[in-house]
């Protein structure tokens, strides 16, 4: 059975746009993943207390036969393939960040995975790319992407040519 899922992508170290393009291509080569939508790239201000360069963010919509944790493993393997080291520091600079934003209508909260992503409705850098793909998409229990964007400030976020 195929499930629709959304993945957020970002990074702020190295040749970020090329890295994001390559990560999307790698995900698309996986036998259990079919990419069905892709956003533009956005330049966004960093999130959190660590001084760092702006991020480039995007999102993709996929159809997958993988279970949620299996998809998470593919995302983590892809991050590692591009040099990402998860050392426990949050909100710091990174070469590649892949977040499973949603997985069908599944709500899951365990030690490894929270879907829908618990803070996606608060983050313009997630919602702007999602709006490119499906502005009517409803974040479980929180509203549509377009309605959520109306409540957020998007200053400092800009689409890249």
From TrEMBL:
Pfam families assigned to the protein according to its UniProt record, in alphabetical order: HPPK
Signal peptide: none
Name of this protein: 2-amino-4-hydroxy-6-hydroxymethyldihydropteridine pyrophosphokinase
The entry's keywords: ATP-binding, Folate biosynthesis, Kinase, Nucleotide-binding, Transferase
Role, per record: Catalyzes the transfer of pyrophosphate from adenosine triphosphate (ATP) to 6-hydroxymethyl-7,8-dihydropterin, an enzymatic step in folate biosynthesis pathway.
Entry annotated with the keyword Secreted: no
Gene name of this polypeptide: folK
The protein's Enzyme Commission number: 2.7.6.3
PANTHER family: 2-AMINO-4-HYDROXY-6-HYDROXYMETHYLDIHYDROPTERIDINE PYROPHOSPHOKINASE
Catalytic EC class: transferase
Family, similarity comment: Belongs to the HPPK family.
Pathways per UniProt: Cofactor biosynthesis; tetrahydrofolate biosynthesis; 2-amino-4-hydroxy-6-hydroxymethyl-7,8-dihydropteridine diphosphate from 7,8-dihydroneopterin triphosphate: step 4/4
Lineage: superkingdom: Bacteria
Domain 7,8-dihydro-6-hydroxymethylpterin-pyrophosphokinase: 90-101
PROSITE patterns per the UniProt record, alphabetical: HPPK
InterPro entries the UniProt entry points to: Hppk, Hppk_sf
A molecular function GO annotation: 2-amino-4-hydroxy-6-hydroxymethyldihydropteridine diphosphokinase activity
């Amino acid at each position: 059975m195929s499930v629709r899922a959304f993945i957020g992508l970002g990074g702020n170290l190295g040749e970020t746009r090329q890295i994001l393009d390559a990560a999307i291509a790698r995900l698309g080569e996986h036998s259990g993943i079919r990419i069905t939508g892709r956003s533009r790239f956005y330049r966004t201000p960093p999130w959190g207390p660590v001084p760092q360069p702006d991020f480039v963010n995007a999102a993709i919509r996929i159809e997958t036969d993988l279970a949620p944790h299996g998809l998470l493993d593919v995302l983590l393997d892809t991050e590692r393939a591009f040099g990402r080291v998860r050392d426990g520091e949050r909100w710091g600079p990174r070469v590649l960040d892949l977040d499973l934003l949603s997985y069908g209508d599944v709500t899951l909260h365990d030690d490894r995975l929270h879907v829908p992503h618990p803070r996606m409705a608060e983050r313009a850098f997630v919602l702007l790319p999602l709006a490119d793909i499906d502005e009517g998409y409803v974040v479980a229990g929180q509203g549509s992407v377009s309605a959520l964007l109306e409540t957020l400030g998007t200053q400092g976020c800009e689409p890249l040519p």
